[in-house]
Design a protein that fits this description.
Length: 326
Amino acid sequence: MIDDATLRAALRTPLEGIELPRFGPCYRGKVRDNWSIPGERRILVTTDRISAFDRVLGTLPLKGQVLSQLSTFWFERTRGIVPNHLISAPDPNVVIAHECAPLAVEVVVRSYLTGVTSTSVWTAYARGDRTFCGHALPDGLRKNDPLPHAIVTPSTKAAKGGHDVSISADELVASGAVSGADMARVSELALALFAAGQAHCAERGLILVDTKYEFGRLPASQGGGIVVIDEVHTPDSSRFWFAESYAERHARGEEPESFDKEYVRRWLAAVGFTGDGPIPPLPDDVRVEAARRYVEAYERITGTPFVADLRDPGPRIEAALAAAIP
């Protein structure tokens, strides 16, 4: 397990973003910086930025390295189940991928009645809704109960700074954002990927509670099929609970033990921030504890130790890309 000194040392060199002028214009998402390059490829640099409630909140030490390497683990492990965009990973923070045209939907798969955000299934259920994104929910459920089965709950892809909106598949198709055939395909792929993730996590003593996937279409030169893009089963995109303590804590009405982004969300909610207004600064102690949980997620899921690279990330990434893309 990573020690506190390593995490605090990493506080001194956060990867807030990077400039790579030789690759042209940069598109900055909430967490990843992207460049389109020749050969219908894309460079994705996973930064240490953390977002929650659809806002960028600051950075967590080593978060980008954890996310990028964990996604690479899942991309390689699940390639035979669901195709993905990965070509190579030349640096702990960097992926080179096929250039895909993103589909205008975030596909969320949920298997438990939980969450604290405005788009969560628990928020809707607690206010009395018994239909969520087109799925009927039974009466009598408590927070953190399992759902009868995993459900696909799409959400719109908000512009940067906006809020995603949960919506049914039928409503999304009716809006023209995606075709019925594409929505059916991504739902099929999402459920297959989620089942594979749950099975692997169960072997590692974890419950994969819910997750978000993004999909894109490969260029025609690569067949034009729909593939999963961005990230897979990371603490940013997914909720993980510890299986060994879930039942006992749930029986007592306590929140499950987790090591995902929910720790940061709960801290923010406790100080009164749920997405609107000024963002409270994250104390270093909170940043370090959140980062420790990210590292623990990596090690628990992969079964291998996480090795932190504490070199200055800018020059390191530039050198790795110079070798990978002369």
